[in-house]
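Revision sheet: structure tokens.
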Amino acid sequence: MPTILCKRTLVFLGLILTLAGAAFLSSHGPSWAQERKFERKGCLDCHKKFSEKYLSLKNLHPGMKEGKCEDCHLRHGIVPKLLVKKDGNELCYSCHSKDKIGLNQPKVHTVLKTGKCTSCHNPHGSQGSHLLKAEGPEACYQCHKKEAYQQKVSHAVIQKDGCRACHRPHSSGEPDLLVKAKTPLCLSCHDPGKGPFRKAHGSYPVENSSCTGCHDPHSSSQKMLLKASAHNPVVEKSCDACHPPPDSKAPFAATGKGGTLCSQCHDESKLKAGGTVLHAPFGGGECLSCHDPHASRNPNLLSRKGNGLCLECHVDQGKPVSKGHAAVTKGKGCLSCHMPHAARNKGLLAAKDADLCYSCHEKVKTSRKAKTQHEPFSKGECSSCHNPHGSDLPAILKSREDKVCYACHADAEAGFVKKQIHKPVLSGSCSPCHIAHGTEEKKLLRKAGASLCADCHGELMKEVAGGASHEPFKGGECLTCHDAHASNFGGMIVAKQDKVCFECHSEVKDGLKGGKSRHSPVSTGECTKCHSPHKAKLNKLMLAQGPDLCLTCHKDLKEKMQKEKAHSPAARDCLRCHGPHFTGQGTLLVKPVQTLCAECHNVKDASFGKAHLGIDPAAMNCISCHTPHASKDPKFFKEKVHAPFAGRSCEDCHLAGKR
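Predicted:
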């Protein structure tokens, strides 16, 4: 019993020591075993230059002033700037309520709608109030060109109180962000009951009309802030020239109808200037379709500037294009070509089609003297091909170049649907070869003959020193063999190859009719297997010298001649025995075999007779025993021979005769 207790006591003590040791190690372990702790630094501890830039400014953003950068920025951002917590204006709206700014109003400042509060405000600090990047009107001039607000006569309120005297910065229930409706806004400063006001307006009750009909609210080159272009009765304070007296029941009614009233001062015959084609508004007496009756910022009292006025009605001409007609986009715009009231030509053109175009395009006019002229050009129908207002295509063409041409040359388009199409035709470009207006060459070609082809095929045109050239090629007559547009045959040739060649080389064509054997390329009409169609270093336009050319096709023979002993004529000149196109003998031989062999081998020599056992040469067929091109045998015997022949015992099979 005491022994058992002792053992239990020892176990218990051991457990206590183990737990105590573990606790000690956990509290006194190495430094790497302890949890790391970070103490945050402020952003400005590192970004001192940034803080120095803004802290000295008069007005600071609260986050900047209190060092609370993380109100807007994420703590861990990216170079070169910290990420903001939300995109665009949404970050600002976290503190600045959309309702207070007035985003629910009918009219909202454009920069707010596009999400760019920072267009006007500096997000960190500014010398100006409300963190504006600039004070007063200068803040507005960041976007609005100041020239329009700093003319000779400036509205006093702008000089004194700036833009915000009349406009709200963020939103409004009125057009142009006005603080109230136009006329009531003006009358808040200008008292219509006072004498000077009544006198200036001829006693007319203008408080019931629109002040900006005559006056520019910002600045003007004219006295009393009248708009730059003012109707004479307005300038002279003679409102009664067009309206009833100021004390009448309807003082602002017109005393005449439309154009009838205007023609009392504006001579209609002068405006027509002999023109019989009338602008619809002018002919209908609707002068106010284009003109403002009182004053305008635009010349001639036009209600809108430049082309914008015309495009209110002529919508199609206003569609955006990448290449606008310079006459439309610059200078006088639409009036460069059109008369505003009346003209002698259709479309209110200031001159006849071509004459109008030539007034700018003088260089094109010189083509009227050209020997060959494009029919629409010679007739002065420029608009047959060109869009006079603008186009997305070069030279303001009405459609893709080839489509413009096919509008008249429809038969040509159908003829170009072939296997081989000339690259310019395939890409829809007629102009690399043809001039659109006029030229001295036939078919409106840019250059004559091969010189035109050389523009693209220059390398082909270079001469080969000491070589040969095909006569049509040498004479620059490319179209003798080639079609300029499209073909169903390789190389853009005008017909099947043999037919093209036989047009000139009739001797080959005629010879084929009686020939016993024909060269395969000739039979299949592939002349270019052996000849170059343009030029070559060798005579007869051969592609290679002698056997080298033949062996490009006869590859089995080439291999045999390389491995075995070659017959001397075969190694030097195939044409010594064979015809190149056709012959009356088999295998294209130029003569019967024995006759051909006898030209080199003296059949009358005694040694020849002895070697051939006295057999009559005329009765022999040399290639019955000998191979004509190459053999392993020194005497060119065939590889496999009949046993009696090998033993020179011809009598075993033949009846021997005597000479």
